[in-house]
Structures are given as C-alpha cells and as structure tokens.
Amino acid sequence: MPILTKSGRVCIAESVSLRAVHIAWGTGDGSWVTPPSEDPNATALLTEIGRRTADTVAFVVPDVAGAIVLPTGSFSLSVTPTNNLYIKTSFDFADASSSVIREIGIFIGSVMVGGLPGGQRYFAPSDVADPGRLLHLENIEPIFRSPAIRESFESVITF
C-alpha cells in the first residue's frame, strides 16, 4: 500500500511556506455556548471579520526545551525544512476592536483586490478577491476584543 513519506511531508510544508499565508478570525455563531467541533470539510470561516498576513512562517522541530511553547508541545526553529510549520501573527490593537472572536483559520494562497495601499497587512472580507484554501480551523472560547489588547495567534501544523 502506498504511503506519504516523511520527505513528501517536508515537501508539502515547503510548498505551503512559499505561498501567501493569512490568519483569519471570525465571530462564529453567537449562540455557541461552548465551541463546537471543527468541520473537516469546512472551506471558510462561518463569519469571517478579517485576516492578517502571517508575521512568521518557519520550520520547527519538537524540542522539550524549545522557546516556542504551545498546548501541543514545545518547538525550536529549524534552518532545515521539516514537516512542522510554525505560523504566527499578532493582530493590531484596532483590528476588529469591538468584536467577539470565536473562530480562527489559517488560509494559504489568499489574493487581495487590486488598488489596496502598499504594506497593508489587515484585510476586511471586502478586500479579499480569492480567500485561498483553508488549511487550519479552530473554534475557540470567545475572545472579547479590546483596542487596548494586541491578540497573537500561533500554531504548528504537522504535515
């Protein structure tokens, strides 16, 4: 039976790292008392309110003493491509400053509409010509946004 080899998984991670990576957030469904299970067939957030270009897209290796600490474990950066891709962004204070965030998605290959200011990193849904592909979806406990707090999100995707 054919398998996807470790080197094949590294190749997938490399391909993803070369494309536009955005972290999107949304309000989800306001009636959620607890976050529902994520739908593996989802292609979009339920109610996207914006997305930001990833600050960091890097290869990592598991490392119990690593500086990148997530609920899934600790990691260290790797100069050599691996099958583990670290993705991080920090939203700005003003991004969706009065919203309640219940869902986060990582999109690959998003294309924005033309004519936007150079260097723009946060995009409303109306700024997005093609959302790209949803790679990672997480329904979360509500985050009540405040313009005094800069939210950061980071994940390690293992291929």
Structure description:
The chain is mainly beta. The protein has a single domain (about 5-159), classed as baseplate structural protein gp8, domain 1 (Sandwich), CATH 2.60.340. About 10% of the residues lie in helices and about 45% in strands. The protein has 1 helix and 12 strands; from the N terminus they run αββββββββββββ. The chain has one helix spanning about 5-15, and strands spanning about 20-25, 50-55, 55-60, 70, 75, 85-90, 100-110, 110, 120-125, 130, 135-145, 150-159. The strands form 3 sheets. A 5-stranded antiparallel β-sheet has the order 9-2-1-7-11, with no helix packed on it. It is globular and about 45 Å long. The mean pLDDT is about 95.
Topology of helices and strands:
Blueprint: H1 6-17, E1 21-26, E2 48-53, E3 56-62, E4 68-70, E5 73-77, E6 84-90, E7 100-108, E8 111-112, E9 122-123, E10 128-130, E11 133-144, E12 152-158
Antiparallel strand pairs: 1-2, 1-7, 2-9, 3-5, 3-6, 4-5, 6-12, 7-11, 8-10
